[in-house]
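## Example record

The block below lists the input lines for one assembly entry, exactly as stored, with component labels intact.
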Amino acid sequence: MNDRHIILRVISKFLIPIIVVYALYVQFHGDYGPGGGFQAGVIMAVAIILYSLIFGVPAALEAIPAGFARGLASIGLLLYAGVGIWAMMNGGDYLDYDFLVEEEEGGHAGQHLGIILIELGVLFTVAGAMVTIFYAFAGRVAEIRDEDW
Amino acid sequence: MNVGTALISVGLLTMLFVIAVAIVRMRNLFAIVMLSGTYSLISAAWFVALDAVDVAFTEAAVGAGISTALMLGAMLLTSRTAKVERSLASLAPLLVCIATGAMLIYATIDLPALGSVTSPVNAYVGAEYLARTESDIGVPNVVTAVLASYRGFDTLGETAVIFAAGISVALLLGFGERSLTASMKDKSGRGRKL
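Predicted structure tokens for the full assembly:
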């Protein structure tokens, strides 16, 4: 496959970094426009999946090992649940972000911090889980055969 | 709904209908996967026409993006063409579809007009969220405020569901690296290139 599909390889080499940057934009702009952790995680996973479709799953496994993807998914869920525990330790209800930081009445620093942290958790879990699912499927067939295109 | 939106809606829905009919009539799985990705992309465009940008974004990313890639991965594990079914056997699903469709169309007669301020969606808890987000959360996007803060516990559950789905597929189909080395060993007789 590597000596063929040169247009696909060149274009995706150019597109994959842009897709990753766009995922980060969707992630951190979620407070202001459409988007958030779910969409950003999926877009991030699509960048990795595109890479493995074009350059082969072994190359993708070298860049993002399957164990890393699984670990990322677990860390994301723990981060999300941990923010809830943190709020409880500060005397609030579970996931009540107002208690994350000390601030005067009507301040929004705690809400902003909580939303950013849990959206990061969602990003990690969604990206990790999607890449894990893709590896489980694609790990069985090395690459798309030429006659399938 | 003004005339422009109505025209765009009718155009996009016609395209969706044509794609759906094409998918039903096709037997080549690769083409079906690609067409279902197109179907998701056009529904995303339709959601934008209905002012549901967050839903459209999710549909484009999940439906057109990741589902297509995952379906491709699943397709590679099976055969390339669907079996031809006997025409009589597909009569029962057709009747079920027509009956469900007729009931759904009958139900839409009672629906409020699109964007009506008195509709239940906009009147009760929705209006409450719109009014209070600015002072409670301080985030301009109300959808994010509802998902991440007001309904943070629900989103935690959704995240846990996605995590469980990923882990279950990995447990059922095998973790990527191990099954990959196994499948590479199978092919070593035939050579690396297919």
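The longest helix of chain B spans residues 53-76. Chain B is about 75% helix and 0% strand.
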